[in-house]
Amino acid sequence: MRVTLCFGGSILAPEELDMDCIRAVAQMLRALKSQKHEVLVVTGGGRPSRKYIEAARKLKASNTYCDIMGIDVTRLNARLMIAALGDLAEREPLATFEAAIRVTLKGKVPVMGGVTPGQTTDAVAAMLASSSKSELLVFFTDVGGVYTADPKLNPRAKKLEVITVRELMRLVTVKKMKPGISMVIDPVGAKLIQRTGIRTLVLGRRDIKRLPEILRGAKHSGTTIVPG
Ligand code: UTP
Question: Is the pTM of this model over 0.85?
Fold first, then answer.
């Protein structure tokens, strides 16, 4: 199966870099490759990208400049993932979807960070999944699913097993997009998921190791986004 996987910065670098998580991701990607899956990877920026964005904002940098700093950090995390994957991965983070697809067709794993100001790596992952005609798109986040409200702010928020993409759009368009903003899937990404109708999962840390069996149909503990 061809799958696009997005590892949010919230799990790769919630505060400092989470080396155990990075190693667990690399091990799981090796398992997927040995089972002949085609895998395309996107990495988020996490807390380090927010630190740079906050600092640049204090220096009165424009939103676009802040976004570019965020993109730089997502690419740095992509480099780290490439280091963890060794020969399995293309040596440089890819900057275009076409280049990422070429790498996939060569049998290697392309790793991408951000590409364009005004969005997050969620949108990059949705675009990569769409342009590579992936069968499945999976987001790994620290909260491990889509909730009725932001679980970090609202203790009564409930994780949803299934959500339609239309409901997801309603949940994510209430916040205004600005550099460093935190939301489960950004509106640009959600819109693309709606347009392509791609099967999408939002999973957490403990499903990283289980992804090979989840691809074979095992149950997961996150949220399935369905068309409609
Ligand atoms: P992230 O994708 O890490 O955003 O990009 P995030 O919402 O913090 O996601 P998690 O926490 O990793 O899951 C960090 C910042 O980089 C800029 C944005 O400012 C974003 O908030 N960025 C990233 C872009 O402008 N364009 C991109 O394509 C990617």
Answer: yes
